[in-house]
UniProtKB/TrEMBL annotation:
It catalyses: (7R,8S)-8-amino-7-(carboxyamino)nonanoate + ATP = (4R,5S)-dethiobiotin + ADP + phosphate + H(+); (7R,8S)-7,8-diammoniononanoate + CO2 + ATP = (4R,5S)-dethiobiotin + ADP + phosphate + 3 H(+). GO terms for biological process: biotin biosynthetic process. This is ATP-dependent dethiobiotin synthetase BioD. It comes from Oikeobacillus pervagus. Homodimer. It holds the Pfam family AAA_26. The lineage of its organism: Bacteria, Bacillati, Bacillota, Bacilli, Bacillales.
Amino acid sequence: MSVFFLTGTDTDIGKTVVTTLLASFFKEHGLQFFPYKPIQSGAIEQDGKLIAPDPDMYRLVMGNQNEEDFNTYLLKKPSSPHLAAELEGVHFDFSLINEKINSLRDTYDGVIVEGAGGLYVPIKKDGYSMIDWIENLKVPTILVARAGLGTINHTVLSIEAMQKREIPIAGLILNHVYDEDETIEKDNVQMIQKLTNVPIIGTVPYCENIREVLIDKDKRKELHANWNMNILKEAVVNEPATII
């Protein structure tokens, strides 16, 4: 019964893809981890009901689940959560989110909590940001970063910010968001590990149509074939028994 928080170095970094792949990866190892995105902006209204886009990808691995299990807060405006919440009159109750995490952890082998945007995305108007929440949760955190050009700076700064807060970092997953120079990408992996000494769980190869690949179980397995389960197992040794 474990909880991982998944964050990224930036928005549109592929967090939802990696969350879905993590659920698939755990499933291949006989573990049922539930993907949960507590705060989702950019929801779409259909038949008078808000529909979150990210759980559609989760379902490629999880199958049909209760809609309300995937999200707690749905916001229409595709913006930072603090702005969308202000415009839509929503107040985030983190005790409610924590109760949901604990409930899911009791039901499944574990939970993957997907954050919104990067570390300093504001959640509240007073400046309370994603990194503040992660610090309070005290659970192992997985950082998703681009594999290509420019990632070293973003990734090292993100890791230093988490280390300063003493946030437990489970490891890195580098996502090939774009089809770029393989020589640069391989060197990025080596240099990030050298500069940070943070373990790299694995990489996600570039896919022209990621959704089609995720639908196919065998192709999906190929995307996380190089991931290291031992790194994830080591990360949960000291996690809190209850999220408060």
